[in-house]
Amino acid sequence: MKRIGILTSGGDAPGMNAAIRAVTRTALANNIEVFGIHYGFAGLVAGDIFQMTSETVADKINRGGTFLYSARFPEFAQEETQLKGIEQLKKHGIDALVVIGGDGSYHGALRLTEHGYNAIGLPGSIDNDIPYTDYTIGFDTACNTAMDAIDKIRDTATSHQRVFIVNVMGRGCGDIALHVGVATGADAIVIPEEKYDIKAIAETLKQGFANGKKHGLVVLAEGVTDAETFRKELLEYGDFDARANVLGHMQRGGSPTVRDRVLASKMGAYAVELLLEGKGGLAVGIQNNKLEAHDMLDLFDAKHQGDYSLYSLNKDFAK
Amino acid sequence: MKRIGILTSGGDAPGMNAAIRAVTRTALANNIEVFGIHYGFAGLVAGDIFQMTSETVADKINRGGTFLYSARFPEFAQEETQLKGIEQLKKHGIDALVVIGGDGSYHGALRLTEHGYNAIGLPGSIDNDIPYTDYTIGFDTACNTAMDAIDKIRDTATSHQRVFIVNVMGRGCGDIALHVGVATGADAIVIPEEKYDIKAIAETLKQGFANGKKHGLVVLAEGVTDAETFRKELLEYGDFDARANVLGHMQRGGSPTVRDRVLASKMGAYAVELLLEGKGGLAVGIQNNKLEAHDMLDLFDAKHQGDYSLYSLNKDFAK
Amino acid sequence: MKRIGILTSGGDAPGMNAAIRAVTRTALANNIEVFGIHYGFAGLVAGDIFQMTSETVADKINRGGTFLYSARFPEFAQEETQLKGIEQLKKHGIDALVVIGGDGSYHGALRLTEHGYNAIGLPGSIDNDIPYTDYTIGFDTACNTAMDAIDKIRDTATSHQRVFIVNVMGRGCGDIALHVGVATGADAIVIPEEKYDIKAIAETLKQGFANGKKHGLVVLAEGVTDAETFRKELLEYGDFDARANVLGHMQRGGSPTVRDRVLASKMGAYAVELLLEGKGGLAVGIQNNKLEAHDMLDLFDAKHQGDYSLYSLNKDFAK
Amino acid sequence: MKRIGILTSGGDAPGMNAAIRAVTRTALANNIEVFGIHYGFAGLVAGDIFQMTSETVADKINRGGTFLYSARFPEFAQEETQLKGIEQLKKHGIDALVVIGGDGSYHGALRLTEHGYNAIGLPGSIDNDIPYTDYTIGFDTACNTAMDAIDKIRDTATSHQRVFIVNVMGRGCGDIALHVGVATGADAIVIPEEKYDIKAIAETLKQGFANGKKHGLVVLAEGVTDAETFRKELLEYGDFDARANVLGHMQRGGSPTVRDRVLASKMGAYAVELLLEGKGGLAVGIQNNKLEAHDMLDLFDAKHQGDYSLYSLNKDFAK
C-alpha cells in the first residue's frame, strides 16, 4: 500500500480535523503517502484531490468543522458514479481510503472496498447514532455546546419561573438529549427511544414548582418533535409560562473537546493500522473503552444502543 | 438616609448581580443599611423584602441572572399599586431605592421618587436600547454569547457552503445585531433602524460565492422579523441553501464579561453616590466613557442612539 | 437505613456538586433522609452537619467546587479522632455515609465502615489517579480547562516560533498530561510513568522547526518536575526560545463538563444503591464503561492504570 | 496611493487578525492593492511580502494571534536596516503602511513616514499601555481570559479558605490587573501605578475571613513583582494558606471578544481612511468612545492613563 486517501462525508462534526490529522501522521510515519479529497464523495468523483504533508495537518487539531469540507452526495449510490470515483482513485494512485462520517458514508466506503479499494470508516457525527460504537467523534463536543447554552438559559429561567423546552440535535437518536438532559438536571427528557407521557411531565413540572423549584426544563430530542409543537401540547396540561428554544446548528461546530480529539486521534491511527493489515470494509468503533472494527455490512442492520439507564436515572432525580 | 432598597425589574441581564453587589458594598461602606427586594415591583408590593449584608453579595459577581429575581409587573402603573409599594417601603424603613432594569422600570422608579422615595435607575438590559447610555449592563455579555454561537455555526457553514440567517435578540433595537454582525464578519446585518434591501443582500451573497467565499451569514435583529420569514423571502431572490437559526434565551444568561462586571460595579457605586447627594429620579448611563445621570423624564421621549457607522462599515467589508 | 451523610474530602474537583446532588435525590426518592457534612472529616468531627432537602441541591449541578466545602484532615488517621467522628454520626442519627474525594479519603471511610457505619467512596479528583476506575469525577473538566489554556498559548507560540513547556496538574499521575498532550498535538509529553529522553525531545523540536513547524509544545506533568527546571534542562540541548508556563489551580475549578456531570450522577445514584443493599467499605469506579465497586482495601495496594497507548501514539504524531 | 502594506509587530494580541482584515477589505473596496508582510519589520527587511486578496482575510476575524506572524526586531532602530526595509517597499511598489503593534512599533513606523512612506499605527497589545487610547486591540480579550481563569481558581479557593495571589500580564501597566481585579471581586489589586501597603492588604484579608469570607484573592500586575515573591512577603504579616499562580501566556491568545473585533475593525478602516487623506506618522486610538489619530511623536513622551477610579472603587468593595 503506497497511498491512502481521506475524505469526510455527511454532516460535519467537531474532531473530524483531529481524525484527518491522525490518519495523515500515522500514514506518513509508515512511509505511506496521503491524499486529501475535498467535499466527500462528490469531490472524489470530481477529482478534487490533493497531496497532504505533515504540514497540511498542523494547527488543525483544535479546529471545528473539517478542512476537507464535506457534502451529502446521494448520487454515489449509483454504480456509474462509483465507477467514476474509482477512476479518480486509480488516476491518483490511491490504494485505500479512510472515510470519516456518519454510517450513511459507509455504503459508499463498502462499494469501494468491493471494487478492490480497501476503505475503513470512522464514525464522525454529533448524533452518536452509529451502531457498534458507544461514542462517535463529535458527540462529546456537541453535548457540551448544548449544555453550555442550556446553563445560560437556566440563568434566565431562574429569574422568571419559566419552563423552557429546548430542542437539541440527534436526528433520530436521543443520545444528545439524554446526556445533556442529565447534565442540566432537566425535569424531563424526551427522546425517540422512549414513549413520553406529557401529562406526567406536566405533573412533574407542577410538583417541582409546588416544592419551591424556580424553573422548569424539558430537553427534547429533535427526532421526537419540534419545541414549539411540544410547547403547545404542554400548555394543554397546565397554565405554564413556557418558552421554546431550538439550539440549532451551533451544535455541529466549535473546537472539539479533549474527548473528541483523543478519540479521533486513536481512531485515525487505528484506521491506518487496519489498512496496513490489508483490511477493508470495516467500521471503527469504541465499545467499553476498547477500539473495535466491525464489518460495515453488520452496521446496516443494527441500531445504536444508547445508555438508557440515564433516562430512569434522571426521572428519579426530577422527583 | 439610613436604608436603601434594591430591586431588579424586567428582562434579566448578566451583570445585574454585580450591580447589586456594588450598590450593597458601597452603601454598607457608608453606614447605610441595605434591603433586597425579590421579584421587582411585584415583590415590593408583596413585601418580599429582606436585609442584606456584605456576605449576601459574596460570590455573586460572576453569576448570571439576578439573585433578587425579576418580574414584569405592569400593574405598577396604577397609582393604587404604587401606594401599596410605598407602604412596604415605609414599613421596612426604606428611604431610597436603586432600580436595575430596562427603562420600562424607570416609570415605577419615577413614581416612587415623586412620592418622596428617591430612586436611581441603572440600565440593566441585554438589548442596549436605553437612551442616554452607550452601553447597558448585560449588552457586552449577550453580544459575546451570540458571537460564540455564530462562530460555531460558521464552522459548519464553511463545510457546506450554506447561508445561515441568525436571529439575535434586541427587541426593537439593532445594537446586538450590529456589533455581532461586525464581529462575525456577516455578509449582511439587518436591523430595525435601517431599511434593508433583500435583493441587494441576495446579490452580495451570490457575489461572495462567485468570489470563492465558502459560506454566507446574515445577522438578523429579532425586531425586524424572524429568521424563517426572512429565509423564505431570501429564497425568492436566489437558489440558496439557507438555514434559519434563532439563538434564543441563552443570550440573556451566562457569566458576565469583564466589561459588564466593571460597568455594573461603577454604576452601582455611582447610584449610591447620587442618593447620598439627595438626588432621585435619575437614570445612570455611560456616555463617551463617562458616567452620567439624566432625569428619567428625559428618557421617556428619547431614543437610544447606536453606533450606526458600524452598519456601513460592515457593508464595505462584505464586498 | 434511615439517614445518609455526605462529605467531600481532599482536593476538590468539578462534578463533586453533581455527585452530592445525585446521592441526595436518590436517597430522598427512597425515603432516606440526607445530611450534609461541611469540610470533610474535619467537619464531621466538629459536628458541622445539617439536613439537606431536594431544594438544597437545586441549581448546583453546573457549579464547580463543592458546596459542602472540603478539607484535608490527616488527624482522622488517629483512632481517637475517628471515634469523635462516630459520636457525631450517632448524635445526628446517621447510619451510613458517602465519601467523595481522592483515595486518601477512603481510609477514613473504611474506618467508619469497620465501626458499623457503612461508607461508600466516590472517586472525586482531577488527577485521575485512583485505582480501579478509568476516570475520576473532575478529570474530564480539568483536561478541558488545561487544553483551552494551551490552545490560547499556541496562538501566541505560532506567532513567535517559541517552545512552550506547560506544567499541568496530576500530582504523581500523568493522565492529565497524557490526554491533554494528545489533544493539543504536543511535540512531547512528559509523565512520571515513562522515562523521558530530553535529548530526543530536543531533536524532535529541532526536526519540527526544520520541517517548517512554527511552534513547539511540551506538556509536562507536575509529578515529573516543574516547568522552569525542565526549561533549563532543555536549553542544554539546543538554542530554543523556550518559555515555561504553570497552569495552576484553575485546573481544579470551573463548571463541570457533560462527562463529569453524567459520571457523577451515575456514581452518586449507584452509591445509594449499594448502601441500600447493606454494603460498605466499597469504592465506586467506572471500568470499560461499566460501574463497579471494589473493596477499598484492594485500592490501597493498587495503582491506577492509565491509557499509555496514548504516549506512543503521540510520539508517532510528532514525527 | 496604489498599494498598502500591513505588518504586525511586537507581542501579539487577539484582534490583530480582525484589524488586518479591516485594513485589507477597506483598501480593496477603494481599489487599493494590499500586501501582507510576514514577521513584522524583520520580514519587511527580508522581503517576506506577498499580495493579499479578499479571500486571504476570510475566516480570520475570529482567530487569535496574527496570521502575518510577528517578531521583535530591535535592529530596525538603525538607519541602515530601515533603508533596507524601504528598498523592499520600493521593490514591491508599496506606497504606504499600516503597522499594528505596541507603541514600540511606532518608532519604525515613524521612520518610514519620514522617508516618504506614510505609516499609520494601530494599537495592538494586550497590555493597554499605549498613550492616547483608552483601549488597545487585545486588551478586552486578555482581561476576559484572565477573569475566566480566576473564576475557576475561586471555585477551589472557596473550598479551602485559601488566599490566591494571581499574577496577570501588563508589563509595566496595571490596566489588566485593575479591570480583572474589579471583575473578580479581588480583596486587593496591586498595580505599578499605585503604592501598595502589604500590611493593610493582610489586614483586609484577615478582616474578610473574620467576617465569614471563605476565600481571599489578590490580583497582582506582573509589573510590580512576581506572585511567589509577593506571597512570601504576605506571609510575614499573617499565617495565611496562600498560593501563587501565574496565568502566563494564555493571556495573549484566544479568539478575540466582540469588543476587540469591533474595535479592530473600526480602527483598521480608519487607518485606510487616514492614508487616503495622505496622512502618515499617526497613531490611531479610541478616546471617550471616539476614534482619534495622534502624531506618533506625541506618544513617545506620553504615558497611558488608565481608569484609576477603579482602584479606590475596589477598595471600598473589599471592606
UniProtKB/TrEMBL annotation, chains A, B, C, D:
Q: Which GO terms describe its molecular function?
A: 6-phosphofructokinase activity
At which positions is Mg(2+) bound? 103
Residue positions annotated to bind ADP are: 21-25, 154, 185-187, 213-215
Q: Which reaction is this enzyme known to catalyze?
A: beta-D-fructose 6-phosphate + ATP = beta-D-fructose 1,6-bisphosphate + ADP + H(+)
What EC numbers are recorded for this enzyme?
A: 2.7.1.11
The coenzyme or cofactor needed here is: Mg(2+)
Top-rank taxon of the source lineage equals Bacteria
**Per the entry, what modulates this protein's activity?**
Allosterically activated by ADP and other diphosphonucleosides, and allosterically inhibited by phosphoenolpyruvate.
Name the residues that bind ATP. Answer: 11, 72-73, 102-105
Query: What sections of the sequence does the record tag as coiled-coil?
Result: none
Q: Where in the cell is it found?
A: Cytoplasm
Please name the Pfam families in this protein's record. PFK
Q: Where is the Phosphofructokinase domain?
A: 3-275
Which residues constitute the catalytic centre? 127
Positions annotated to bind substrate? 125-127, 162, 169-171, 222, 243, 249-252
Q: Which CDD domains match?
A: Bacterial_PFK
Query: What family does this chain come from, according to its entry?
Result: Belongs to the phosphofructokinase type A (PFKA) family. ATP-dependent PFK group I subfamily. Prokaryotic clade 'B1' sub-subfamily.
Physiological role:
Catalyzes the phosphorylation of D-fructose 6-phosphate to fructose 1,6-bisphosphate by ATP, the first committing step of glycolysis.
Q: How does it assemble?
A: Homotetramer.
Xref: PANTHER family: ATP-DEPENDENT 6-PHOSPHOFRUCTOKINASE (PTHR13697:SF4), PHOSPHOFRUCTOKINASE (PTHR13697)
Q: Write down what this protein is called.
A: ATP-dependent 6-phosphofructokinase
This chain's source organism reads Lactobacillus colini
- Supply the gene name: pfkA
